[in-house]
Design goal:
Elements: E1 2-6, H1 10-22, E2 26-30, H2 33-43, E3 47-51, H3 59-68, E4 76-81, H4 86-94, E5 99-102, H5 107-213, H6 218-234, H7 237-269, E6 277-279, H8 281-296, E7 300-305, E8 312-314, H9 316-333, E9 338-347, E10 350-357, H10 387-397, E11 401-407, E12 411-419
Parallel strand pairs: 1-2, 1-3, 3-4, 4-5, 7-9
Antiparallel strand pairs: 6-8, 9-10, 10-12, 11-12
Helix pairs in contact: 1-5, 2-3, 5-6, 5-7, 5-8, 7-8, 8-9, 9-10
């Protein structure tokens, strides 16, 4: 340990130096406060033993300068003084010195007080070591937390893609239906266009005949008109005039349906943004219904009881995944001819979403486990047991709550509450 001894009296400085060296410590000497301050800045000793009254700079001034310095570790300061009044000693401690010795002092007393300082310094070093270790541990925890969040995000996306994979056949069917009738309509339109093209050719022939008829060929004009009327009857021109706009409108609606499904699926599958945004939950529910519609339509009808609700702040893709997990579970709980009711409302500065089904219900002993990871009552291969756990965590991350009410044989209701904006 390095100890700085600042004492303007040579004999006193020699006595302190001898006692310090006898204890095995290195000594720095200063004959006044100014030199002591310079040595302190250069060597930053662990302990300072200083006389109070010194030229250039007093011991109290030296003490205050040390405490105001940017030295990272603690320096133990002991003042030597002949003053023994209470007010004087109070001034010593107000200058933030740690100890004092009244002159004249005995070497044994000095050594004892230096040992006390050693213990303080050792404790302070241990504190710094523990602090550094704690900082390192915190860094490791931060890294582990970042890794955990990344893993959680990957699991969330994997579960989402797995859900989409399970719905892929239904989504393909939903896309295939409009594509099918678009193809059929185009074939019909192709046939119609052949007839219309033939009719146009006949009209062109008639136009030419009319021009020639101006020179006296009226009989041929009558024959052309008769032929046109007969051909219009053959191709059912009145029907074509009505059917062609309908076919085009059906094709337009079909392409819009496909575009809407693809857009909703793309939005649903997207990992989402890192920033939260204001969300219309009614729109999110509609988007999710478009994705899972084929999973539901053969088993249940969907009744929407949407209210005029406030917006919520959050991540739309994540909340849509919650809705999908609940809606798919509702469909799977219904054997046939069931009903799924989706209701939204504002309640006590919250937006509430209730999704109810008329399915088989959940046994009372399983209700507390519904949101546990890997819990599932489905057959092996039909569920990971992560859907409801992920839903619970997503709602919790949005500062909301999700609860469940169920009766065996009657159905289940999931209740989601999210803070309104």
């Amino acid at each position: 340990m390095n100890i700085l001894v600042a004492e303007d009296d040579y004999v006193s400085r020699l006595l302190v130096k001898k006692a310090v060296k006898k204890m095995g410590h290195a000594v720095l000497e200063a004959e006044n406060g100014k030199i002591a301050w310079e040595l302190f800045l250069e060597h930053q000793p662990d302990m300072v033993i200083s006389d109070w009254m010194m030229p250039e700079m007093t011991g109290l001034e030296l003490c205050k300068n040390i405490r105001a310095s940017d030295k990272k570790t603690y320096s133990y300061i002991m003042l030597l003084t002949a003053k023994d009044k209470t007010d004087d000693l109070v001034e010593v401690f107000e200058a933030e010195a740690d100890d004092y010795i009244i002159k004249p002092f005995k070497p044994d007393e000095l050594r004892s007080r230096i040992k006390t300082g050693e213990r303080i310094i050792q404790l302070e070093k241990q504190h710094h070591e523990m602090q550094d270790e704690l900082v390192e541990k915190n860094k490791e925890l931060d890294d582990a937390l970042a890794h955990l969040k990344n893993t959680q995000s990957q699991i969330l996306q994997s579960e989402k893609m797995a859900s989409i994979g399970q719905l892929a056949a239904g989504v393909a069917h939903e896309i295939n239906n409009p594509i099918g009738f678009i193809g059929s309509n185009l074939e019909a339109l192709s046939d119609y266009m052949q007839d219309v093209s033939s009719l146009l050719n006949k009209y062109q022939d008639f136009q030419k005949c009319v021009k020639d008829g101006a020179k006296g060929e009226s009989r041929e004009i009558e024959q052309q008109l008769s032929g046109l009327a007969q051909f219009e009857e053959e191709i059912e021109i009145d029907y074509l005039k009505d059917d062609i706009p309908e076919l085009l409108n059906d094709c337009k609606e079909g392409t819009q349906r496909v575009a809407r499904i693809v857009a909703d699926l793309k939005s649903f599958a997207h990992p989402g943004n890192d920033k939260q945004m204001l969300i219309d939950l009614n729109a999110g529910l509609d988007t999710t219904l478009n994705v899972v519609y084929n999973e539901i339509k053969y088993k249940a009808t969907v009744e929407k009881e949407y209210g005029e609700i406030a917006r919520v702040e959050g991540f739309p893709q994540k909340l849509n995944q919650v809705f999908m997990n609940i809606l798919v579970n509702a469909a799977q709980a219904i054997e046939e001819n069931g009903k799924i009711t989706i209701a939204t409302s504002n309640e006590d500065k919250h937006v509430v979403v209730k999704i109810s089904d008329t399915g088989c219900g959940i046994a009372p002993e399983n209700l507390p486990k519904v949101f546990d990871p890997f819990f599932t009552t489905k057959e092996i291969g039909k569920g990971t047991g992560l859907g409801m756990n992920i839903a619970y965590n997503i709602i919790e991350d949005h500062n909301g709550t999700i609860s469940i009410e169920s009766q065996v044989g009657k159905g289940t209701t999931f209740i989601i509450r999210l803070p309104a904006k």
